[in-house]
């Protein structure tokens, strides 16, 4: 009998006679998407054969169909994220409405385009192609531009194809004023130049195709970061990168996905990949290191040193992206190992660094990054909140995909729950926003106490002793999509309280480091797509957010993507972004002498110090 | 019977039973080096199997031994230049003594090296690697350097290997003052930095390894340009480049050879390829186009437009050279399609553009390039002299390799010749310097008249009617290495007269274009290794060089290589070189209204107008 090891789950089993991989996976409870019932029609059950010999049908160079795959020897099968999760749910969620901050600024993209009619060479004037071009550029005010090698090579063809009429794309570095050519095309290009902005997230990639003249978003797409197959969080991916060619593989996989998504962005429009003239990326420090293939291990090793904070502008050709070689790739600068370009771009997009109002900027994710400040100062920190708010470390937690419970209400009398799932499907588990609601409801209804423990005196069919202590049964197995009870355990609650405690202690330390308190805050900005889905009251009830007047809170949406887009549209924004990164003082929370005290004090619902949560106190 | 096609000769034949490739080649009169008699010991009979299946022994990835090679199907066999010609002769010749012009200048290489001791990161100062480096560089006066992508990728390893002590190599662009990093190495590098200068010739590559501190040439090597296999002259190579992937192949082959020669340069010294920190190349416009993989066909097509005249500084990584990715590659600028970087570098090396003396600079080769001028002006032209002075188009002409007749004297009474061959071997043919001597002697002794025709009245065993008219038998077949008579025909003489006529008309047109005559010349500089071997009196006698006082002539040697080396050693020389290229006014001889008249007048020995050659007139 051949043995099958499933990655990334590390579950292995012997395959039965005449059993296919998808049947074995089903038997083991390993989810592989399949909408056609296993008849080989849907092509969704993609798996990668990492080692061993198989019989089966390939979908493309990388993937086999699990539904017809049979091992000939012991095999290792990797289930890619595309087969684990439904991308449609992701696309739905990330389009949520957000209060994007707008500026009254005229669009002034650093990417410019110029139409030139060069004179054709004659025997009297057989000036070489390059010098002919440089002369014309100089006439247009562009002296001594950088010429990518690939451009020089294609120059003679481009000039002659268009009878010496050309469209030149270029950008000017706002720091050095150096002009760099991006592309040269034959004839006069119609239509506006376009660029791509991307939020390079640990979990998801979100891309927008942007009109560089009107500022309009022409197309949007997103997908999971395929690096998930090699580790859900940044730490496990850094570990994976230590393997031979691991880093290279991580970089290649994400670039393949980016290429695929870019194709998707342009495909329904009258554009092609070669029309994209700039690429602006905002990602956290680790994702940016992976993307540039920079060694990430020192980020994790004491004293936690990134390879770089500000990234030089490299070209698409150097970075093996499927764009014109000369296309500049702008990467938002980081501040520290765990405060990255997604946060600097977020602060840029939020405009908080241009305004008087003292603002707390919160990006809730695996690492909750926070920034406090205004136009005069910016303090930032990463709170190691862990993945609890994304469903990680929670028994029945799951990502926010179809079938996830995203909202919960508990009747204060009957203690019966009301739930809403994504896509209105039979419930499979609970995602982040559902988890916060559930915790808040359990606390509000008194089912759990300040310490997060269930009332021991109450006999209720939904509260029972489970494997990990007491638990609340949110969905009985008869009603669940999994055939198992969906429960919420004291262990889960403890994880959540630790996570929210880390966040709250972070706010306090940051503020204290500049002699301020929560009461001084004039605004709280919630960034990230996740932020757009949580219930504000619930989040304050559990002490995840500070108890401030509700009109001080703003859901800004994906500020990382918004910031990346601003870099494409406003020449001066790259300067502003670098200035923001320079301004941001990073506080290493774990080194701060008071941090543990604040953290311990926050390990209650909503907090040990109830005066910090007056409205919660009143309502309970 | 399998058919064998030999390239580059395009001779094909059926191979006999049990016949090897070398035996077939011998039967067909195709030369393949072999010093061991075909026993498989010498490894000199290298051939490339371009198509077809064979049985045989490989020497390495590319080459088979011809002496054991048997075709299984029809095959195409390419005889590489290494097997056609003996490189040892080349190495001997190119070391000839030359009057290299020296300047009293302190060496000031644009390639600088800096030893830095960075502080090691601590938790209080975990500044990223790049920013730590940039800070230290700024402290040393180097602000905002360009960082090649490959350097950023290796930065974390290099820093930690040397405990944050590093040696940084960089260069400053003399035009923009922009500083660019070349390499970063762990610890303190001992020994001086080194660079490579190269003369990229149509026929030969000549390379020097240069100490960038002392200016000393540490090693020298040369070899044939392997592109010869695809065409002896630039025109046939441009034709070859039109084929699919032809241009790519030409670029690859020359880069492979360069890589091989660079290995050879460093191998006996305490250096490795990675120690080379700069590469300076001077080559003609076509060779430079091939090297950069720039489309060459427009150089040949009316109105003869190069892709570029001044070449941006690209990096070894971009150009796929086996050096550190960040190593800058300097290419000497061209003036026109047939006046290239070898000439601008030559003018640089000659110092003529810094001095008052009116100078005629002559580089005699396939295209005889000429420059007239001084510090105030420079006029240049390419004379289409053809390859006659290199033995091309001459019945028994050959390259200057072992067995070539390099010097000739004819007894004025007996008309018997005295000859000297390269390597003192049995004569195989006549090379350029021998051809000039022979022509001059035939003329001086009255065996030929002013028009280059043999005396019809003379009965002499060495003069006979051949296939192409009258001819002089220089070597009877009994004494020759080929088993055939070595002859010199009226046809050969006509070709030579046309070639020297083209040169002489070129001198006149160039001088006339600035209102000067030959008598105004204060100096004549003869450049090129070929120039170092010709007999001055003989060259004047045939009218190839102007009849001026002999002390006005200087043999400068390989000025192209000398110029390339100066760029490595003196920061300001790149500016000077670009200024020279700018200053040089190109005269298209074939367009000049008087050119044909001057040319026709020069089709005599030494010239129609004998007053131009007073000393020749006196001596005859």
Q: How would you characterize this protein structure?
A:
Two copies of one chain form a homodimer. With 620 residues, chain A is of the alpha/beta class. The first copy, chain A, has five domains: 3-84, Beta-grasp domain (Ubiquitin-like (UB roll)); 111-186, Ubiquitin-like (UB roll); 199-341, Nucleotidyltransferase, domain 5, CATH 3.30.420; 356-386 and 501-614, Nucleotidyltransferase, domain 5; 388-496, no CATH class. Chain A has 18 helices and 28 strands. In chain A, the strands form seven sheets. The first copy, chain A, has a six-stranded mixed beta sheet, with helices on both faces. In chain A, strands 27-26-17-18-19-28 form a six-stranded mixed beta sheet, with helices on both faces. A five-stranded mixed beta sheet of chain A has the order 2-1-7-3-5, with helices on one face. In chain A, strand 18 (368-373) and strand 19 (378-383) form a beta hairpin. In chain A, helix 6 crosses helix 7 (246-267) and helix 10 (341-350) packs across helix 15 (559-569). The longest helix of chain A has 24 residues, at 490-513. Chain A is globular, with a radius of gyration of 27 Å. The relative contact order of chain A is 0.10. The model of chain A is unreliable at 89-97 (pLDDT under 50). Chain A binds chain B through residues 121-123, 126-131, 144, 146-147, 149, 152-153, 155-157, 160, 175-176, 178, 292-295, 298, 302-310, 312, 314, 318-319, 334, 336-337, 588, 591, and chain B through 121-123, 126-131, 144, 146-147, 149, 152-153, 155-157, 160, 175-176, 178, 292-295, 298, 302-310, 312, 314, 318-319, 334, 336-337, 588, 591.
């Amino acid at each position: 009998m051949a043995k099958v090891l499933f990655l990334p789950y590390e579950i292995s089993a012997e395959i039965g006679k005449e059993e296919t991989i998808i049947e074995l996976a089903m038997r083991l409870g390993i989810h592989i998407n399949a909408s056609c019932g296993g008849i080989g029609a849907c092509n969704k059950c993609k798996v990668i054969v990492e080692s061993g010999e198989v019989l089966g049908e390939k979908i493309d160079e990388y993937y086999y169909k699990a539904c017809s795959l049979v091992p000939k020897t012991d095999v290792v099968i990797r289930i890619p994220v595309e087969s684990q999760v439904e991308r449609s749910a992701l696309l739905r969620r990330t389009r949520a409405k957000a209060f994007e901050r707008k500026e009254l600024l005229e669009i002034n993209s650093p990417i410019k385009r110029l139409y030139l009619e060069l004179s054709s060479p004659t025997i009297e004037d057989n000036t070489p192609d390059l010098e002919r071009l440089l002369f014309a550029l100089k006439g247009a005010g562009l002296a001594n531009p950088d010429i990518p090698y690939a451009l020089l090579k294609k120059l003679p063809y481009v000039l002659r194809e268009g009878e010496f009429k050309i469209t030149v794309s270029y950008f000017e570095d706002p720091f050095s004023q150096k002009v760099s050519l991006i592309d040269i095309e034959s004839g006069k290009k119609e239509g506006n130049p376009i660029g791509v902005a991307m939020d390079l997230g640990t979990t998801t990639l979100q891309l927008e195709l942007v009109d560089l003249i009107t500022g309009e978003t022409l197309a949007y797409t997103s997908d999971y970061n395929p690096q998930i197959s090699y580790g859900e969080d940044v730490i496990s991916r850094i570990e994976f990168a230590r393997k031979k060619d691991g880093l290279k593989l991580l970089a290649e996989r994400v670039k393949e996905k980016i290429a695929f998504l870019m194709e998707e962005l342009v495909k329904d429009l009258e554009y092609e990949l070669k029309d994209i003239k700039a690429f602006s990326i905002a990602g956290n420090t680790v994702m940016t290191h992976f993307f540039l293939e920079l060694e990430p291990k020192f980020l994790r090793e004491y004293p936690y040193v990134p390879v770089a904070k500000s990234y030089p502008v490299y070209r698409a050709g150097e970075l093996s992206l499927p764009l014109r070689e000369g296309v500049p790739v702008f990467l938002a600068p980081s501040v520290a190992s765990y405060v990255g370009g997604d946060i600097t771009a977020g602060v840029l997009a939020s405009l908080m660094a241009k305004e008087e109002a003292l603002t707390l900027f919160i990006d809730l994710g695996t690492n909750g990054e926070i920034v406090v400040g205004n136009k005069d100062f910016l303090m930032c920190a990463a709170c190691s909140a862990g993945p609890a708010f994304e469903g990680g470390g929670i028994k029945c937690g799951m990502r926010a995909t179809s079938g996830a419970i995203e909202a919960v209400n508990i009747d204060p009398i009957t203690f019966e729950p009301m739930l809403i799932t994504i896509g209105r499907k039979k419930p499979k588990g609970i995602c982040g926003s559902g988890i916060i609601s559930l915790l808040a409801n359990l606390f509000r209804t008194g089912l759990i106490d300040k310490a997060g423990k269930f009332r021991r005196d109450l006999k209720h069919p939904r509260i029972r002793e489970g494997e990990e202590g007491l638990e609340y049964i949110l969905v009985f197995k008869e009603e669940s999509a999994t055939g198992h009870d969906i429960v919420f355990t004291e262990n889960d609650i403890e994880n959540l309280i630790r996570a929210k405690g880390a966040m709250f202690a972070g706010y306090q330390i940051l503020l204290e480091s500049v002699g301020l308190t929560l009461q001084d805050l004039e605004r709280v900005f919630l960034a990230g797509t996740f932020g757009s889905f949580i219930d504000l009251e619930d989040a304050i009830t559990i002490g995840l957010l500070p108890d401030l007047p509700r009109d001080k809170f703003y859901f800004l949406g994906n500020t990382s993507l918004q910031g990346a887009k601003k870099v494409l549209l406003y020449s001066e924004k790259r300067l502003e972004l670098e200035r923001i990164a320079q301004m941001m003082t990073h506080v290493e929370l774990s080194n701060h002498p008071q941090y543990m005290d604040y953290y311990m004090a926050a390990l209650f619902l909503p907090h040990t110090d109830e005066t910090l949560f007056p409205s919660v106190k009143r309502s309970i």
